[in-house]
């Protein structure tokens, strides 16, 4: 397994009853890039119908975690307000979400009650809905829980294991790290996140043309009279801005998608200023000082579906990439799919097919 983010670790845990799994992570800690910089929510406004089905299939895992994980989630309602010119989009989004969750409609008074910091009225929010089933996830606890399963089954997780070469020989894949370590296995799982196409290139496997996108988060203080803990996660109808409570402060994103090369993503001044500007447009809050900021990569295939399955052009090379920001909330279901495709267990997610996730769809 190449990649120690949530995709790699969850799949490694699912496969641990069937084989010894070795996870090679380039950084010195797991979940360093996308998995560790996620907003860490489970909700249905993210992605397309297959992603929503994967999210739905993962929900029970987060609500009643297996032994050894501890508490993985807590309720955090998600509010979607709309201006008068956004009402058509609001109705459309509600229709998209209705097969997956229950929403409550709100008038202007309801919006004010649920989120007192919103601007309400002419030129501002006039209607919206709230999904009270959404969950705030503990990404760190999820990663560590999966890591414990891997190790308890005799598997290994190797940090600082940046890949130098990959070759196929004698029915096995041979992977060498820059430190000179070598590993062999009949199945090589490429969970390299933003670097997954690069991993494929080392193995002389055709890439699937993934595109990493940078997203920026800022954190700032709320006024003393605002109970941050009572605020919902709030997201505009279009991908303009979201914000929510974060350890006694407020975090916000301009929902930027900036194409970039695989990298240790860092926030840039423009996107931080854009987040602050959009918060002040939509709410009565003032971003007087940014207390913390970060950026992460969300990596997409061209159709914005995950890429999960054996490569059509290389025996034993398995793709696990392209989660595009949904990696945490879909990890349990996607890991079960990996187990099904590799170990032959029953297919776990109704309404999602192996064919629509397969890398063969790009041929």
Summarize the structure.
27% of the residues lie in helices and 25% in strands.
Notes on the protein architecture:
It is a single chain. By secondary structure, the chain is an alpha+beta fold. It folds into 2 domains: 6-70 and 138-210 and 302-362, FAD/NAD(P)-binding domain; 77-133 and 211-300, 2-Layer Sandwich (D-Amino Acid Oxidase, Chain A, domain 2), CATH 3.30.9.10. The protein contains 9 helices and 20 strands. The chain has helices spanning 6-15, 49-63, 87-97, 108-114, 139-152, 196-202, 269-282, 327-343, 354-357; strands spanning 22-24, 41-42, 73-75, 78-82, 104-106, 127-131, 135-137, 156-158, 163-169, 172-177, 182-185, 188-190, 211-220, 233-235, 242-246, 249-253, 258-259, 290-300, 307-310, 317-321. The strands form 5 sheets. Strands 4, 5, 6, 13, 14, 15, 16, 17 and 18 form a 9-stranded mixed sheet that branches. A 3-stranded antiparallel sheet has the order 2-7-3. β9 and β10 form a beta hairpin. α1 (6-15) packs parallel to α8 and α2 (49-63) crosses α8. The radius of gyration is 21 Å and the shape is elongated. The two termini are 24 Å apart. The relative contact order is 0.20. The model has no long low-confidence stretch (mean pLDDT 96).
């Amino acid at each position: 397994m190449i990649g120690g983010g949530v995709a790699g670790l969850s799949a490694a845990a699912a496969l641990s009853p069937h084989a010894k799994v070795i996870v090679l992570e380039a950084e010195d800690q797991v979940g360093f890039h996308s998995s560790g910089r996620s907003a860490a929510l489970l909700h249905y406004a993210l992605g397309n119908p297959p992603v929503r089905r994967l999210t739905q299939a993962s929900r029970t895992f987060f609500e009643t975690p297996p032994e050894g994980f501890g508490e993985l989630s807590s309720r955090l309602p998600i509010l979607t307000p709309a201006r008068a010119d956004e009402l058509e989009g609001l109705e459309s989004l509600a229709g998209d979400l209705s097969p997956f969750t229950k929403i409550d409609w709100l008038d202007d008074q309801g919006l004010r009650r649920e989120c007192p910091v919103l601007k309400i009225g002419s030129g501002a929010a006039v209607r919206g809905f709230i999904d009270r089933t959404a969950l705030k996830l503990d990404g760190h606890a999820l990663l560590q829980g999966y890591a414990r399963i891997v190790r308890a089954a005799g598997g290994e997780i190797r940090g600082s294991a940046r890949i130098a070469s990959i070759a196929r020989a004698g029915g096995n894949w041979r992977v060498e790290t820059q430190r000179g370590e070598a590993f062999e296995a009949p199945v090589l799982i490429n969970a390299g996140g933003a670097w997954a196409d690069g991993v494929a290139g080392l193995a002389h496997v055709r890439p699937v043309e993934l595109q990493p996108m940078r997203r920026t988060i800022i954190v700032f203080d709320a006024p003393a009279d605002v109970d941050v803990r009572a605020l919902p996660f709030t997201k505009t109808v279009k991908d303009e801005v979201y914000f929510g409570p974060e350890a006694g402060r407020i975090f916000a994103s301009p929902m930027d998608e900036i194409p970039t090369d695989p990298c240790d993503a860092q926030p840039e001044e423009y996107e931080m200023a854009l987040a602050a500007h959009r918060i002040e447009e939509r709410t009565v809050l003032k971003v007087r000082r940014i207390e913390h900021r970060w950026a992460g990569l969300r990596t997409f295939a061209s159709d914005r579906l995950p890429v999960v399955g054996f490569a059509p052009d290389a025996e034993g090379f398995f793709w696990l990439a392209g989660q595009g920001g949904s990696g945490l909330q879909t990890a349990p279901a996607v890991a079960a799919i990996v187990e099904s495709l590799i170990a032959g267990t029953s297919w776990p997610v109704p309404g999602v097919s192996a064919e629509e996730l397969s890398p063969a769809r790009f041929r």
